């Protein structure tokens, strides 16, 4: 029998990841009711950070072997050039692994440079792993189909990590430049079934996935608020993942939201990341102090400025992660959210995740419009494909049935990694049209 010491490094990392995952299951099963919420929150975040890092070790060993060990065996590699390269790869991997820890310990009004560097390395790490795997797969396929006629070619083998690194650097720079630009303003006209004619051309500005935290701070939020105010919306809605941190820690960064002054109100629903903070109640109180109304499985009647008899129902549901995490008093409850919203009037629903939008339509097909976020449009290559296949609605406008539309925002900022590849941050200006 092979002992643990005899296992390859990747196998040891996989065993460690399994052990951490098992500890997460035990904690949620047996300690969930015994620990105070804040303690449970920190324990879960620490466990998830350790779990992700142990999984990343498998990729890091591969990166090290591909970019360091291989070249160290090459006679062409001079010690003068090789040592700085070795240090650079080590620092790169160390920063990528430390990125998740910054979420626990380095969150303030403005991002720390270390956090930005760490998450940038994490993004580059993901791209590099993809290209090393893809190029390696191409090489193995070539050897398989070429059979015995394929000869080992050291120069071609050496080109694989070099090409992967070059592509990673180019795409990382492109992603950073794209994400550093202000969000694009996307104007969309959506016909809303049973919207009163008096409310035709009502303007709703949709924000989603701002992710205030280690890499998004007050300056970026203030820019977003200025752009929203310039659009002069009748209503502003924030459909979740506003934050990745506790309210007290990042309170100064949230202040610009108090400048939103939409005449028919500003509304908010939770995303999955609000529940990861385990601080939803304090966030609700903070947002209320800024004249932003959380829709906690509830609704409001949005009346026409010219006639109180002309109105539609604006409803919001808690994110489905509230159910998964057993967050007391929270979780998606569509019946409660739509209480009093009859099918005689238009219904606009705020639901963070597209999968929640799908569930809502299965239960209440009379909903006129659902506004969601969560997907980030994949945020960056190569994560785009996963986000596309995991969500029933990916990004943009969808028509469901005869009278229902779903709009999924690609996000107003980004989560952690300050990069966007194959997607663009967006502030959505929605013009409601009466059919």
Automatic annotation (TrEMBL):
InterPro entries registered for this protein in UniProt: Calcineurin-like_PHP (IPR004843), Metallo-depent_PP-like (IPR029052), Metallophosphoesterase_sf (IPR051158)
Signal peptide: none
Domain spans labelled Calcineurin-like phosphoesterase: 202-377
Residue intervals passing through the bilayer: 42-64, 85-106, 112-136, 157-177
Keyword NADP applies: no
Molecular-function GO terms, alphabetical: hydrolase activity
Gene3D superfamilies reported for this sequence: 3.60.21.10
Pfam families reported for this sequence: Metallophos
The UniProt record lists the keyword Metal-binding: no
Keywords tagged on the record: Membrane, Transmembrane, Transmembrane helix
Protein name: TMPPE metallophosphoesterase
Organism: Alectura lathami (Australian brush turkey)
């Amino acid at each position: 029998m092979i002992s643990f010491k005899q296992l390859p490094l990747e196998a040891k990392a996989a065993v460690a990841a399994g052990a951490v995952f098992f500890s997460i299951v035990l904690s949620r099963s047996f300690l969930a009711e015994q620990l105070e919420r804040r303690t449970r929150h920190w324990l879960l975040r620490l466990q998830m950070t350790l779990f992700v890092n142990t999984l990343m070790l498998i990729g890091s060993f591969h990166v090290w072997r591909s970019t360091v060990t291989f070249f160290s065996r090459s006679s062409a590699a001079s010690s003068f050039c090789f040592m700085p390269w070795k240090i650079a790869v080590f620092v790169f991997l160390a920063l990528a692994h430390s990125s998740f820890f910054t979420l626990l310990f380095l969150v303030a009004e403005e991002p720390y440079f270390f956090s930005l560097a760490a998450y940038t390395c994490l993004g580059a790490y993901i791209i590099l792993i993809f290209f090393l795997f893809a190029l390696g797969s191409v090489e193995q396929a070539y050897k398989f189909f070429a059979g015995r006629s394929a000869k080992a070619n050291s120069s071609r083998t050496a080109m694989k990590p070099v090409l992967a690194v070059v592509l990673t650097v180019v795409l990382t720079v492109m992603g950073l430049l794209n994400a550093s630009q202000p969000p694009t303003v996307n104007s969309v006209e959506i016909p809303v079934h049973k919207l009163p004619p008096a409310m035709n051309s009502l303007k709703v500005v949709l924000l989603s996935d701002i992710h205030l935290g280690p890499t998004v701070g007050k300056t970026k939020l203030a820019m977003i608020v200025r752009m929203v105010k310039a659009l002069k919306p009748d209503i502003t809605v924030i459909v979740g993942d506003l934050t990745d941190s506790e309210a007290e820690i990042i309170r100064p960064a949230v202040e610009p939201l108090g400048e939103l002054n939409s005449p028919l109100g500003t509304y908010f629903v939770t995303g999955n990341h609000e529940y990861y903070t385990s601080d939803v109640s304090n966030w609700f109180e903070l947002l209320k102090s800024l004249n932003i109304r959380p829709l906690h499985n509830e609704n409001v009647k949005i009346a026409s400025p010219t006639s109180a008899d002309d109105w539609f129902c604006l409803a919001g549901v808690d994110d489905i992660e509230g159910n998964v995490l057993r967050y007391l008093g929270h979780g998606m409850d569509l019946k409660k959210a739509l209480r009093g919203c009859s099918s005689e009037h238009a219904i606009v629903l705020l639901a963070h995740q597209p999968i929640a939008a799908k569930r809502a339509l299965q239960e209440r097909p009379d909903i006129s419009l659902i506004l969601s976020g969560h997907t980030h449009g994949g945020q960056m290559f190569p994560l785009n494909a996963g986000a596309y296949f995991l969500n029933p609605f990916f990004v943009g406008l969808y028509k469901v049935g005869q009278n229902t539309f779903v709009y999924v925002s690609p996000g107003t900022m980004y989560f952690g990694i300050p990069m966007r590849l194959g997607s663009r941050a967006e502030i959505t200006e929605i013009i409601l049209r009466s059919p």
